[in-house]
Design a protein that fits this description.
The chain is α/β, with parallel strands linked by helices and about 250 residues long. The protein has nine helices and six strands; from the N terminus they run ααβαβααβααβαβαβ. The longest helix is centred in the middle third of the chain and has 25 residues. About 40% of the residues are buried.
Length: about 250
């Protein structure tokens, strides 16, 4: 399979890889400003999520090279907020404030992808629901505070891909300066992130793998399967379940 060959090569040296071009048509101007903006737009959103150390950063950079301009890559809102100096004190007040700020940045990143209007697919480094995993008072309180229902948030995203956090003996580390969690804390966050996305109709979990290449192949297959078929309307495409149903698995 061509995409697997490229995924294998990219794990060694993805900067020299020729991009994979996916034919797209120019989307129409979208309605913006409503909670279901992304759901009603012609830009299809895919979320890449998971616990700390799951490999999201590396997978996102690889996807940037593999899919080139065919898939718009949105950066992680939390990294933008924290690297900009937002207080990260660990108190309840600080956590609430940070998650509200992250939500606003995420919302505007998605709005930008819709209004900019040059792509049909955007890959998000986490989605709005991730904030519920960090919210001190739980999932329901999070959605009340941001003023959008869980149903409307889920409707924004066509596909959710959850990368499982590895255990310490499988390579979990603190190489990312934004990562502060111990292996035990990372595993608990991974469980909570899985919980907050529970019920999304097109969610996949990619288990921790021994090699980055294997994980990248799973993710690129899922992204490619979620890309609309050229010449057909966005609503006519269903995700192609090409992989072993257990690795990764579709969760309803």
């Amino acid at each position: 399979m061509l995409i697997k060959t490229r995924a294998s090569a990219i794990s060694a040296s993805y900067f020299s890889l020729p991009p994979l071009w996916i034919p797209t048509s120019q989307p129409e101007q979208s309605q913006v400003g409503s909670p279901s903006m992304a759901a009603n737009s012609t830009c299809r959103f895919i979320v890449l999520t998971g616990g700390p150390g799951a490999g999201k950063t590396a997978v996102m950079e690889a996807a940037r090279q593999i899919f080139a301009q065919s898939v718009h890559i949105l950066p992680e809102a939390a990294s933008i907020v924290y690297s900009g100096g937002f207080p990260r004190l660990g108190t309840t007040v600080s956590v609430r404030a940070a998650q509200r700020a992250i939500f606003r940045v995420q919302e505007e990143l998605e709005r930008f992808a819709v209004e900019e209007g040059s792509t049909m697919v955007a890959l998000c480094d986490r989605g709005i629901s991730d904030g519920a995993a960090y919210w001190p008072e739980g999932i329901a309180s999070f959605y009340r505070n941001i003023g959008i229902s869980q149903e409307d948030v889920f409707a924004r995203y066509h596909t959710v891909i959850h990368l499982r956090t590895p255990t310490a003996d499988m390579g979990y580390n603190l190489s990312n300066p934004m990562r502060t969690e111990s292996p035990e804390q990372a595993a608990e966050l991974d469980r909570r992130i899985e919980q907050v996305w529970e019920g999304h109709p097109n969610r996949f979990i990619v288990p921790a793998t021994e090699t980055f290449t294997e994980k990248l192949e799973h993710v690129t297959d899922l992204i490619l399967a979620a890309v609309p078929t050229p010449g057909k309307g966005a609503g006519s495409m269903r995700t192609v379940r090409k992989l072993n149903p257990e690795t990764p698995r579709l969760l309803i």
